[in-house]
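Re-running R3H domain-containing protein to confirm reproducibility after the cluster update. Everything else is unchanged from the original entry.
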Amino acid sequence: MAQDDDKTVDQLNDEADIAADYLEGLLDIADYEGDIEMGVRNGRPMVQIVADDDTDIKHLIGRNGEVVDALQQLTRLAVQQKTGERSRLIVDVDGFLKRKRQRLHDIALDAIDEVRETGEPVDLKPMNSFERKVIHDVVREEGLRSRSHGEEPRRYVTVYLRANADAEDADDEE
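Result of re-run:
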């Protein structure tokens, strides 16, 4: 992951441009109307699809964001094919990721409250790496500890009080 730290803003913008062109082509094929917004956020190229038609947008998000995830993977491959380098590009559709982050933030705060009330660790349901990363960040901000356990696709996060976490159980940043 240190690879993106070495990329210039121009390189990240180039990745966003490549991604935008690719996604515009996909939207044309699917006959969806939509605007593409792009930029760099937190050192990562980002492309967002914004459409006027709610029906089209729902198809681009999919159930639990499955279509957004697939679009992101395909777009990353298209960028890699053009640049020869792996991209950590983020693809969003109509603010889906922002809403998802907020839900995850709320889940993390609920788990934190439970840990503080009971003093016992709390296991969350299995999540993908993006979701676990959001949880780990919130837990750390709140002064508690967290750790990922298990194997994909059943990998999950446990939230601990600092006193209950062993020194070797450092936050599992993904």
